[in-house]
Write a structure and sequence with these properties.
This protein has 542 residues and is of the alpha/beta class. It has a domain of 197 residues: P-loop containing nucleotide triphosphate hydrolases (Rossmann fold). The protein has 21 helices and 22 strands. It has a 6-stranded mixed beta sheet with strand order 6-7-8-3-9-10, with helices on both faces. It has a 6-stranded mixed beta sheet with strand order 18-19-20-15-21-22, sandwiched between helices. Strand 9 and strand 10 form a beta hairpin. The longest helix is centred in the middle third of the chain and has 18 residues. The two termini are 28 Å apart.
Length: 542
């Protein structure tokens, strides 16, 4: 008998039918992948299993866990099961963790609640599980808070909380989205080993078919709340008999067509962005009244150029200094050493007032567009916000025309300008973020993981948009990403960063095919590849 069996699950929230008769099962020791685009019902299926649905939600069907129907289980019994029998890893670790509690407290909390263990015993178990997920307490004390960890490290804490009591079923909702490829490989190896050693069932929710092909035994493909395809992973992804499965596979390997690559070689005025011996050092953690740990150098003697119209990727592992470097380029943080020149002008010493014309020509697209928008403002106002940098009063007609032109450039109807952010899908919100970035017609856009949270179909559309804007407007890009497939698809040159230093740089295809540095080789070898994963699985089966 299956550990988890879902039969004819229907879910209605108000008038919206989120799930339309879902059938799937997970056996002990099995990894089943649940894939599909945003809004397909993946997370709603997971929340139905955990009985964490919003108020007013109505369900039909059965969710049998070890023979017991969870849809008829009392909340008290579900509280005993959550964390103990069924664990869940949520997609966004910063919202899943309590910002005012230490990581040690948060991991130990579930252990003490479910087992009644003493504080000392719970702390001992906490150290063991944190060490198991790659956070040894010698380097990451239990007294640290979530904000003191990188995104990848926070995700490891979330996984430690979910796995602390060795649940029989683990639901992992996009557990590696925020991680670099090396950490992603380590976390997937960890999950696989837990499944193998503990005979745990794993329901892996993911939009990355390469990851799914590498680790999942079986796969269920959802679209609009319905099962489109279901079966053994290698067979489903190799044969691609269902049109929607084939569409997802093609989107996951999509490379935008670029009619012209702006290398900037024809320019005679020098680089658009010139970084010279840039460093950023942070003081060490205080130890008592008089002691302090040694200083931490987040960025260490970094130098590079970006030419007008050039698209450059900055890749590296979580915590290597990519975001710190980006903040200094955007003049959001002062360097402790070195120089930053933009359009021939040194900007790292400028006052906030003098930075205004610089910021008009340098914009940013963040990883999470929803978090960067004020939810109380409509799209019209959100997109037009950077226009204050023009240092002149903008007539209403010109402002409206600029908003319309920006919306048209990113493929959103101008009639949508009166909508609020929550009325747009994830991909549409990212398009709005790009519209906001280009409304001042900048020369450089810094894009910080702009597609990592998007499903494969939307990611393909956004990459096409970035390529199109580069071709039509000649915008230069600094892409900060851990996804080497994105770097290969959209950039001319790539820089590999590790421990605050640029380890190697060059043409994207050359670096990613034949990396010379140890950091570059580690990234390339850990990067998931759909074709390679399927070939390996077929070879193992043969």
């Amino acid at each position: 008998m299956s550990l988890l069996e879902i039969k004819g699950l229907k879910l209605r929230i108000g008038a919206f039918e989120a799930l339309k008769g879902i059938n799937l099962s997970v056996k002990s020791g099995e990894i089943r992948a649940l894939v599909g685009e945003s809004g397909s019902g993946k997370s709603m299926t997971a929340l139905s299993i955990m009985q964490l649905l919003p108020g007013g939600a109505k369900t039909q069907g059965q969710i049998l866990f070890d023979g017991v129907d969870l849809l008829t289980t009392s909340e008290a019994d579900m509280c005993r099961s959550r964390g103990n029998d069924i664990g869940m890893v949520f997609q966004e670790p910063m919202t899943a963790l309590n910002p005012v509690k230490t990581i040690g407290e948060q991991v130990a909390e579930g252990i003490r609640l479910h087992t009644g263990a003493s504080r000392a015993a719970a702390e001992e178990q906490t150290r063991a599980i944190l060490d198991r997920v790659g956070l040894p307490t010698a380097q990451f004390p239990l007294s640290r808070y979530p904000h003191e960890l990188s995104g990848g490290q926070r995700q490891r804490v979330v996984i430690a909380i979910a796995c602390a009591l060795k649940p029989r079923l683990l639901i992992a909702d996009e557990p590696t989205t925020a991680l670099d490829v090396v950490l992603q490989a380590q976390i997937l190896d960890l999950l696989q080993s837990l499944v193998h050693e503990e005979r745990m069932g794993l329901l892996l929710i993911s939009h990355d078919l390469a990851v799914v092909a590498d680790v999942a035994h079986s796969i269920t493909v959802l679209r609009h709340g319905e099962v489109m395809d279901n079966g053994e992973t290698t067979q489903i992804l190799t044969e691609q008999t269902h049109p929607y499965t084939r569409q997802l596979a093609q989107a996951s390997m999509h490379v935008p067509e670029r009619t012209s690559h702006h290398s900037g070689q024809a320019t005679t005025n020098g680089p658009l962005l010139a970084i010279r011996s840039l460093s950023r050092t942070y003081p060490g953690r205080r130890k008592g009244f008089f002691g302090r740990d040694g200083d931490f150098k987040a960025v260490d003697d970094v130098s590079f150029d970006i030419k007008p119209g050039q698209s450059t990727a900055l890749v590296g592992r979580s915590g290597c200094g990519k975001s710190t470097l980006a903040r200094m380029v955007l003049a959001l943080e002062k360097p402790t050493g070195g120089q930053i020149h933009f359009a021939g002008r040194r900007i790292d010493k400028l006052s906030q007032e003098d930075l205004r014309p610089v910021r008009r020509n340098m914009q940013v697209v963040f990883q999470d567009p929803y978090g960067s928008f004020n939810p109380r403002h409509k799209a019209d106002r959100l997109i037009s916000e950077p226009l204050f940098l023009l240092d002149r009063d903008i007539p209403e007609a010109e402002r409206r025309d600029r908003v319309h032109r920006a919306l048209e450039r990113v493929g959103i109807p101008r009639t949508d300008k009166d909508k609020y952010p929550h009325e747009f899908s994830g991909g549409q919100r990212q398009r709005l973020a790009i519209a906001r970035a280009i409304i001042t017609e900048p020369k450089l856009i810094v894009a910080d993981e702009p597609v990592s949270a998007l499903d494969v179909s939307i990611r393909a559309q956004i990459l096409d948009l970035f390529a199109d804007l580069n071709d039509r407007l000649g915008v230069a890009y600094l892409f900060i990403t851990h996804d080497l497939a994105v770097a290969r698809a959209i950039t001319d040159t790539v820089m590999v960063m590790s421990d605050g230093k640029i380890m190697e740089r060059g043409k994207t295809e050359e670096i990613l095919r034949h990396p010379q540095s140890e950091a570059g080789r580690a990234l390339v070898s850990a990067s998931p590849d759909l074709h390679k994963a399927l070939a390996r699985r077929i070879g193992e089966q043969g």
